[in-house]
Amino acid sequence: ASNTSSTSFIVTNAAGFAHMATLVNGGTTLSGVSIYMLNDINMTDVANHTPIGVFISDDDHSTSFQGKLYGNGYKVLYLRVEQTELNGAGLFGAAYKATFSDIGIFGGSVKSANRAGGIAGYADKCTFINCYNTAHVTTLTGKDGAGGLAGVSRKTTTFTNCFNLGTI
Question: Rounded CA gap, 130 and 114, in Å?
Answer without folding.
Answer: 25
